[in-house]
Specification:
The protein is built from ten helices and eight strands. The protein is α/β, with parallel strands linked by helices. Helix 7 links the parallel strand 5 and strand 6.
Length: about 350
């Protein structure tokens, strides 16, 4: 009997040991799995944090990448950009760029490209000639209603259906003043500069404007010399082969008796040639002719051979051969005026 009890006790004891061992093994597995899950969860959280940090850095970069905190001024075409080069020279906090190439010329039929729209989407100020030269202005306003638009023609002396204002030196001076005021207003209202830096930028724009107007005033002195010579002349008649010259004629006091607006797309009929030759022959004394050296040379040679008239080939100051030169307006207009003065002597 005692032997049976002893065997039963040993069996129970061994069973307890087996159960205890199995329990310990299961606990170990559970702990290991929990630790692995916790480690995996920790890795996911770190990854999410890194992604969040990367996104935050990218957003921060996007906020300042466009112009690195500077105000971006975009001009529409060559005459406006040359003005910006003079007014904004050395001004901190402002970058400026031209929308079109320097060889583009007038923008009557210009169509905005995808790249143009991308550039305008980053701009703070868009400076343009006005008067219909840029036929896409409504598209820009519609696409970017918050963009500050500076129309430089709001105070000019305008001729009917003719927006080549820059060919009048006095009008161009007015356009420069409008440009300066528009840029200063945006600079003051925006978050580009503050304190002394803002004051210095505005002061330098004013100083640059005064310097540039001083150069333009020198052109006006030559214009006055021509006007005085014309006042004493028996012949003030003029025929123009580009409507831009109407503003130069206005400044100088010429009497336009005939015109033919020639450009790259203009197809001139035989009857138009006969008509302009008749105008030249019928006026006594014979009118002087202003022609564009690019689009008017052939017609200039034709009328000169047919009538014996004098033809002056003058720059319309609307484009260059591919370069931007800060003094190009002053230099080219000076050449124009010198040619006219010489013709009067």
């Amino acid at each position: 009997m005692k032997k049976n009890h002893k065997s039963l006790f040993i069996a129970i004891f061994l069973a307890v040991l087996v159960v205890a061992a199995l329990f310990i093994v299961n606990v170990g597995r559970t702990t290991k799995n929990s630790g692995t899950d916790a480690a995996e969860d920790g890795t996911a959280s770190k990854s999410e944090t890194e992604n969040s940090s990367d996104t935050s850095d990218e957003n921060s970069s996007e906020d300042t990448n466009g112009s690195e905190g500077k105000m971006l001024v975009v001009t529409s075409f060559y005459p406006m950009y040359i003005g910006a080069m003079n007014l904004l020279d050395g001004v901190e906090g402002i970058e400026y760029v031209n929308l079109t190439e320097p060889t583009t010329g007038c923008l009557h039929d210009y169509t905005l490209t995808t790249e143009d729209m991308k550039l305008l989407s980053t701009a703070d100020v868009f400076v343009y000639n006005g008067g219909g030269i840029e036929n896409f202005i409504s598209d820009v306003v519609s696409a970017y209603p918050e963009l500050t638009m500076v129309d430089t023609s709001s105070q000019v002396e305008a001729l009917e259906d003719n927006a080549h204002y820059w060919m009048s030196v006095s009008n161009y001076m007015t356009q420069m003043e409008e440009m300066a005021e528009g840029i200063k207003a945006e600079l003051s209202q925006g978050n580009y500069l503050s304190g002394d830096a803002l004051d210095q930028a505005i002061l330098l724009i004013d100083e640059n404007l005064a310097t540039y107007e001083g150069k333009l005033a020198g052109l006006q002195e030559t214009e006055q010399e021509i006007a005085d010579a014309l006042a004493d002349s028996e012949n003030t008649n003029l025929v123009i082969f580009h409507e831009a010259y109407a503003y130069l004629a206005m400044d100088l006091g010429y009497n336009i008796v005939g015109d033919m607006d020639l450009d790259e797309e203009r197809q001139v009929s035989a009857s138009e040639v006969e008509e302009i030759i008749s105008v030249l022959n019928e006026n006594d004394p014979m009118p002087l002719v202003f022609a564009d050296p690019v689009y008017g040379e052939d017609m200039g040679q034709t009328v000169s051979e047919e009538t014996g008239c004098s033809v002056l080939y003058l720059d319309t100051l609307v484009q260059s051969n591919g370069e931007y030169e800060k003094n190009s307006y002053v230099e080219k207009m000076s050449e124009n005026l010198s040619a006219i003065l010489e013709a009067l002597q």
